[in-house]
Amino acid sequence: MKTAEEVFSKPKVELHVHLDGAIRLKTILHFAKKRKIQMPVETEEELRNLVICRKPSTLTVVLSKFSYYMPVIAGDREAIQQIAYELVEDKAKEGVIYFEARYSPHYLANCNVHPIPWEQSEGDLSPDEVVKLVNQGFQQGQRDFGIKARSILCCMRHMEAWSPEIVELCKKYQNDGVVGIDLAGDELIDCESYPGHVRAYEMAVKCGVHRTVHAGEAGPPKVVREAVELLKAERIGHGYATIKDPLLYNELLQNQIHFEACPHSSVLTGACDPDFTNHPVVTFKKDKANFSLNTDDPLIFSSTIHTDYRIAAEYMNFTEVEFMTVNLNAARSSFLCSEEKEELLNQLYEAYGMEQKAHDI
Q1: How wide is the angle at C-alpha 32 spanned by C-alphas 64 and 46, nearest 5°?
Q2: 50, 172, 180, 343: most buried, per Cβ within 10 A?
């Protein structure tokens, strides 16, 4: 029987981490000083106490934490490239060999939150420049730390006007670092009432852009159904509420829709019961659902991927085989092209002492 530390040392794949929720405290303070932006705190410890969520709260409270530090990073070329580079370094230290980080190019561009509908938003940078900068940071990080990083670009539910530009950026950089599109934000905003999101996802389908959607975290099961039926999502960000609708849950199991689960985050946002033994991930595991373990916002939740693995080991009785399965699930459900996906799976097979299964690709 291997120890938890031995299991955690195996290569890992992470599919759900927010770039702007994974910034180092030291980096925030550095750019605040460099850009002469006044912050309500001066030290790392003070900043940690300000932005980190330590006990179960609400998603609204958690999201409010971003407002303390995003003005320091958004709109600054050097800062954006650096946070991308540092995320690759941090994930390499955690033993992650491949990750997909998501972000809103408009937020990092420091765009006006009330743009003119259907026109490009004006900000300190263009969203296109942001994507280039993140790509550059990831590329340098990959060269220096020997792991692979890709981006998912986020549409925002309350900013319908940004979605056409997001899908265009996904198309433009489809073979240059960007692997998919996401929809994040208030799940109570019905996509049927916001046709811009639907059109963006329809275009993504036509152009072969991979699709994930935040759904079933704070919202009800119907948001998950909307994601898979209306937006044609291949993966669901979180998806915990799905188990409350047995018919929908069974459909997703049968169709192997991937759940990007984030156990630690789900409790701190108030999405799930604080008792991890009753967490939806336990049900996912029992039912052999297609799911992965992820950090979500490691800055806000003061976590690493090992935090979520430890929760899975201590409270959900994950075995080494189940950790292996979670990572194989993540690799198979990644948005990499077939050739790169095969390479990733081979890395995992070698690490776990397995022979490649021909039907995996």
Answers
A1: 60
A2: 180
Mean pLDDT, residues 291-296 taken together = 98
Dihedrals phi, psi of 8, to nearest 5 degrees:
-65, -25
Per-residue pLDDT band for 116 (boundaries 50, 70, 90) equals very low
Cα separation, 216 vs 238, in Å, equals: 6
How does pLDDT run across 197-232, given as a tens digit for each residue?
999 999 999 999 999 999 999 899 999 999 999 999
Cut 0.90: pTM above it: yes
Residue 92 phi/psi, 5-degree rounding, is -60, -40
Q: Are 260 and 237 in contact (CB under 8 A)?
A: yes
N- to C-terminal Cα distance for the chain?
A: 31
Helices within the chain (DSSP H only): 4-8, 25-34, 44-51, 59-64, 70-73, 77-93, 105-108, 127-145, 163-172, 195-207, 221-229, 246-254, 263-268, 280-286, 305-315, 320-333, 338-351
Q: Which residues form the catalytic set?
A: 217
Number of Cβ within a 10 Å radius of residue 33: 12
Residue listed under structure tokens 């410890």: 45
Q: What are phi and psi of 310, to 5 degrees?
A: -65, -40
**Cα→Cα distances 276→116, 155, 218, 310, 315, Å:** 44, 30, 17, 11, 6
* Tokens describing residue 85: 């580079």
* pLDDT at residue 258 is higher than 70: yes
